[in-house]
Sequence to fold (426 residues):
Amino acid sequence: MRKRPVLILILILIFTVFAGFFVFPHPIFRYIDISSWLPWRLGLDLVGGTHLVYEIDMTDVIDVDRDSVASGIRDVIERRVNLFGASEPQVFIAKKGGAYRLDVELAGIQDIAQAIKIIGETPFLYFAEVENLPDAAATPTPEASATSTGPTFNPTDLTGRYIVGASLNFDQVTGKPQISLNFNGEGAAIFEQLTEKNVGKPIAVFLDNVLVTAPVVQEKISGGKAQITGQFTLDEAKLLVARFNAGALPAPITIVSQQTVGASLGSDSLKKTLTAGLAGTILIILFMIIYYRGLGIFSSAALIIYIILTTAVFKLFAITMTLAGIAGFILSIGMAVDANILIFARVKEEIKKGLPKVSALEEGFKRAWLSIRDSNISTIITSIILFYFTSGFIKGFALALLIGVIVSMFSAITVTRTMLRVFIKS
Fold:
């Protein structure tokens, strides 16, 4: 019976050692700056960066679709900012009344102007019907659209929000590059109705309010596939394909605010927070050893294992840690000890009743588990609510607390219990 706990303890210790080397592959004393040896990706408040605010133009979007359009824009911008290495690409929608704004927080971005340029260049694509042509079969040109007497363009419901992918190919006759667009199911239906209505007429394609091309519809097109042709060079065609695949915006955006965030205050706060966390952990260990003596030693060992494993989880999943997230992690350290206190209190009660230590240990874990389970589940539910219904740094706090509580349950129940089973004597 004793061999199994010994084997489990050995596996836990081996796993913890590997986790420790994973978290800190180099000695900590080699680093001078406290933020340089932390194993986490640090957020905007700790490493600096920029905060951009964009206004979303919902003029041509009906009310019932505005929330989904805003969500689509957020997804597009998230993909764009991930392309240039932001360590904390926080992108979220702020809604006030009928106005929608997009907040973008880019941590660690050195070339802020380039970041703004890349986000701003994300294309807004839409299709328009063409009217007032001298000849119904005539094809308007970008030059003609610039004149006051040229054709008029009526935007349709078919926009970039319905595009799921684009590819580059070449005309088999002329060898000129052209772009193939694939629409989703809803976009395919709109495109089919649009082409059926405009057989023999041109349909204009605008990219950021610039006429790209206006091919003449030869027949109704089904299946959700379209070809964009024009006087493209190969480089221009490749650029358009890359933009479409990055995601065409379902509505235009305009930057209204830019704020550069320095890291000096964040670094100072980080040092103070980590110092407080270290001091608190040491005090917790001393309290557990003084009050619970032998049991406190096992609790302290389990607490150190918990800290290493939780830190490894943060690094493994590349979780970005803000100052609030680090505070959530430190809070979870105290909560990890709460479980041991409940267990030890129950064990001492069972020993006073006259049970042998081994029996008191098992009974103490059994009776304390219900309280530990209920309290941790309550914290997990609260963390999930905070994560999904808030934004910014509060989400970081909630995520760190959630992970910490889950790992602490393993630490208190499995690690502490296994060590006591191995070392406690009847």
User: Anything to note?
Assistant: DSSP finds twelve helices and 13 strands in the chain. Residues 49-122 form a domain with the Alpha-Beta Plaits fold (CATH 3.30.70.3400).
